[in-house]
Amino acid sequence: MKWVAVFCLVFTLVACQDLPLAEQCDEELCQLPDCRCSSINIPRGLQARDTPQFVLVTFDDNVNIINIDTYREVLYNRQNSNSCPAGATFYVNHEYNNYQLVNELYNQGFEIALHSITHQTPQTYWQEATPEIMAREFGDQKIQMAHFANIPYESLKGVRIPFLQLGGNSSFQAMSEYGLEYDCTWPTIAYTEPGLWPYTLDYASTQDCVIAPCPTASIPGVWVIPMVSWRDLNGTPCSMVDSCPIVPPFSDEDAWYRFIVTNFERHYLNNRAPFGFYIHEWYLAVNPAVKRALIRFLDLVNNLNDAFMVNSHEVIEWMRNPVPVDEYVQQPCRTFTPTLCSANSCGPLASEHNEVDYWMQICNVCPRVYPWINNHLGI
Q1: How many CB atoms lie within 10 A of CB 261?
Q2: Are strands 227-228 and 187-188 parallel, antiparallel or unpaired?
Q3: Which of 134, 138, 235, 222 is CA-nearest to residue 181?
Q4: What is the pTM of this model?
Q5: Which residues belong to any copy of the NodB homology domain (predicted)?
Q6: CA–CA distance from 261 to each of 41, 131, 292, 309 (Å)?
Q7: What Å distances lie between residue 104 and 19, 178, 193, 229, 366, CA to CA?
Q8: Would you call 176 helix, strand, or coil by DSSP?
Q9: Does an H or E element contain 223, and which?
Q10: Which among 68, 69, 98 is positioned nearest to 346, based on CA atoms?
C-alpha cells in the first residue's frame, strides 16, 4: 500500500478518488494488534465489567501564556487509581503557539498531537484538500513541532483536522506516509449507546459520515478514534462539549457536574468505549463553574478503580493488546525522557503569507522568517 500513498501525494484528490474502495471487513483476516474492524464490540471479547474505562481529555488550538494557567490548574499532578500519572492530549496548531509551553506540557507527561500549521478558513479548504496539502499541514507540522518545542519526533502520533472537517482519504494517506498513528476528527452520532471503539482503516468503516467526505480507501496501519458524541439536555448530539446547544446554566456547578457524569455513564454503564471530554480551553476560562465541575469529575475518575485518564496514544496501545482491568492496573506506568528547552524569544519575524510580524517563544534557534506552510521551519 505504500506506493498508493506516494502516488496520492504526487497527484491530485481527483486521482486519489479513483482508488479501489475498501472492502467489507473480514474479522478472520483483520486481527489485532495491527487491524481491527469498526465495531461496538469490546476488543478480544472482554466483558464490560472487566474492561478499563478510558477517559480522553483533549484540548484544541495553540498553547499560550493565558490558557496554560487552566491546564496547570485542571490537569497537573493528577494520578489514576493505579498510581500512574493521568493523561491528556493537546491538538496544537502553529499560529501564535508558544513552543516553550508545549515543551512544558510534554515534560508533564501529556501528549502533544497535531492540529495543522495554518488552521485556515474557509472550511472547504480542508474538505477539498489533496493528500499533498494534508502532508504539508500535518507531515510538515510533525517536523515543525519536534523542532521548535524540542520534543521527540516519534512522540507525535495523532491528528485532529480543524473544524472536524474530514477530507476523504487525503489526510489518512498523508498520515500513513509520515508515520502518524491515529486520527481523532471523525464524529459519530449513530454509535453512542453503545459507543464505537477505535478501529483501523484496513477495511471499510461502518461509522456514520457526519461531516463528509469520509475515507473510502483501504489505508492499513492508520487508526480512527471515533469522537463519540455527547447528548445535550434535549438529546441533541454534540461532538465537542463547547458545541452542545442546550446545556445547564453556566453558573450552576452541580448541574454541570451531573451533565458530565450522565454522558460519562453512557459509556461506563455500557460497553465502555473510550469517553471523550473534547473541548477548547476558552470555554472553561469564561465559565468558572464549568471548570470546577470538570475538576470534580476528574477527581471522581481518578478515584475509580476501573476508569483511567489517559493520553489518546495509550488507548491505541491498549487496543493493540487488550487486557482486562485487573491486568491493566499491574502494568508499568508509561515512561518518557523529559527534554530540555533552550528558551529563545524570536521576533519580530516577517511573515511571507500576510502583513503581520510575529514573535515566537521556542526551544531552538530563531528562524529567518515566520514559519508557515511551504516553509515550515522559516528558513
Answers
A1: 15
A2: parallel
A3: 222
A4: 0.94
A5: 51-165
A6: 23, 39, 13, 14
A7: 42, 25, 37, 30, 19
A8: helix
A9: strand 219-224
A10: 98
What's the mean pLDDT when you consider all of the chain?
A: 95
Question: Could you tell me the CA-to-CA distances from 72 to 69, 76, 99 in Å, in that order?
Answer: 5, 5, 16
For 298: left if phi > 0, alpha if psi spans -120 to 50, otherwise beta; the answer is alpha
* pLDDT score at 20: 75
What are the tens digits of pLDDT across the range 174-207? Answer: 999 999 999 999 999 999 999 999 999 999 999 9
Q: What is the pLDDT of residues 279-328, one digit of tens each?
A: 999 999 999 999 999 999 999 999 999 999 999 999 999 999 999 999 99
- The per-residue pLDDT for range 87-124, each reduced to its tens digit, is 999 999 999 999 999 999 999 999 999 999 999 999 99
Write phi, then psi, for 219 (nearest 5 degrees).
-130, 85
Using N-to-C axis directions, what is the helix angle for 2-10 and 170-177, rounded to 10°?
Answer: 120
Distance CA 189, CA 207 (A): 9
Tell me 306's DSSP state. Answer: T
Per-residue DSSP letter, 189? S
Going by the DSSP 8-state scheme, the letter that residue 331 receives in this structure is S
- 182 and 159 Cβ atoms separated by less than 8 Å: yes
Residue with cell 451531573: 258
Cα separation, 210 vs 66, in Å, equals 33
373 Cβ contact list (under 8 Å, min separation 6):
117, 118, 136, 137, 140, 353
- Cell 500549521 maps to which residue? 117
Residues in the chain: 379
Q: Report the alpha-carbon distance of residue 85 to residue 302 in Å, rounded.
A: 10
Helix, strand, coil distribution of the chain in percent, nearest 5: 35, 15, 50
| Contact between residue 274 and residue 225 where contact means Cβ atoms under 8 Å apart | yes
φ and ψ of 159, to 5 deg: -135, 140
Q: What does DSSP assign to residue 192? A: B
Superfamily of domain 51-322: Glycoside hydrolase/deacetylase (3.20.20.370)
Cis omega (within 30 of 0) on the bond before 52? no
Cβ neighbourhood burial of 64 (10 Å; 0-12, 13-18, 19+): middle
Interatomic CA distance for residues 350 and 304, integer angstroms: 51
